[in-house]
Amino acid sequence: MKIITFTILSFLVLNPILAQVDLPNTLSKTEKIYGLSKFWQEVNYNFVYLNQIDKEKWNQDYIDLIDLVQKTDNDYEYYRLLQRFCATLKDGHTNVYFPRAIDSLLYTTWFGDYRLVLTNIDGKAIVTQVNPSKKAEIPIGTEIIEVNGQATKDYAEKFVKPYIASSTDFILENNTIAWLLQSMS
Length: 185
Fold this sequence. Notes:
two-stranded antiparallel ribbon, 8 strands, 6 helices, alpha+beta, globular, 17% strand
């Protein structure tokens, strides 16, 4: 199979800061602090592998997030902070999910007229499915080498991987590629 390199332009991947979508902003600062505190408390009480995490760092991250969650501009940013905090546990069974109002706005495979499914193949983001009308333009086997002007690996390390909760490296790597182009509708 011939692999063709392809650069995804920023119009395909919508940065939340530039999104034209009205993101829900329903949570007060108090509710954000409560939600963060509730998550932190539940982990401290119920997380089976608490003895395997750096408790001092976990607590300091919580303290740091108290200020950060209050400064979020919308519910999406708030939940992303919680997801990043959760991912530090490195457990695929402990997650923070978006509420329906946000989740319904997110896309991982549809981008305007394009439907792209990415798969991790030898550490590369490879297009393994594309809508039939775009196959000539983006053939199966195309490698995504750049996202929003950054090398794919750099973009993934900064904007995707830190938000994925996983205890195994291969799941983390596969989900990082699968969710590489997640954007707002």
